[in-house]
Amino acid sequence: MIYKRTKLKRGRSLDTIFVLIVFSVFAFSILMVLMLGAGIYRNIHEISRGGENERFVLSYVRTKAITSDNLGGFSVGEFDGSSALFIYEMIGERQFRTVIFSRDGWLNELFADATLDLSGAVGMRVTPIDYVQFEEVSHGLIRVSTENLSLLLSARSMQGGVFN
Questions:
Q1: CA 4 and chain centroid, separation
Q2: Are 38 and 51 in contact (CB under 8 A)?
Q3: What's the mean pLDDT in 58-62?
Q4: Residue 115's pLDDT is what?
Q5: Residue 162: its pLDDT value, please?
Q6: Phi and psi of 49, rounded to 5°?
Q7: Can you give the pLDDT at residue 65?
Q8: Within the chain, what is the greatest distance between any pair of CA atoms?
Q9: C-beta contacts of 120-129 below 8 A and 24+ residues apart
Q10: How much is the pLDDT for 5?
């Protein structure tokens, strides 16, 4: 009789251990799936955010160019070691310029009197961006490029369109 009880207790404890092991494996599997899903979500979010920033940069540059009153009032050049867009405008009797350029992974803007020789360190940060390039394609036609998108601006009509 004693022999049967210890055998039953041993059998029940083995059943309990087996159930705990199966439950632990199941809980670990759920945890791994959740962690994998969170990693995938984070990657998708960062990819879509990157595209969002690129679209924002192109929209920002286009808006700045459109709000410039002077026809042909912008040009392309180099500023603080990077490609830049210069937008000129007259306010009263003085000429001012807005410089849009990238520096340290950020799109920056600098608005100042056109006669002042300032560095990019005094520019205002607008948004993070890895790459932005300004180039004059032909007289009056400027291409603004990010990693995946580009925008053509016509200096005469202040119109532009986004291209992949």
A1: 71
A2: no
A3: 88
A4: 81
A5: 44
A6: -65, -40
A7: 81
A8: 112
A9: 120/79, 120/80, 120/81, 120/82, 121/80, 123/80, 123/99, 126/57, 126/60, 127/53, 127/56, 127/57, 127/60, 128/53, 129/53, 129/54, 129/57, 129/102, 129/105
A10: 56
H/E run at residue 122: none
pLDDT at 35 > cutoff 70: yes
Cβ proximity of 102 and 108 under 8 Å = yes
**Residues recorded for the chain:** 164
Question: What are the helix (H) ranges across the chain?
Answer: 2-66
38: which 2 tokens? Answer: 């969170």
Strand order in the sheet with 133-138: 133-138, 141-145, 150-154, 160-163
CB 118 within 8 A of CB 112: yes
Confidence of residue 160 (pLDDT cuts 50, 70, 90): very low
3-state DSSP assignment of residue 140: coil
**Which residue, 48, 51, 95, is CA-closest to 69?**
95
Both structure tokens of 141? 């036609």
**Amino acid 10: pLDDT:** 61
CA dihedral in degrees (117, 97, 74, 151; nearest 10)?
Answer: 100
- The 3-state DSSP class for residue 69 equals coil
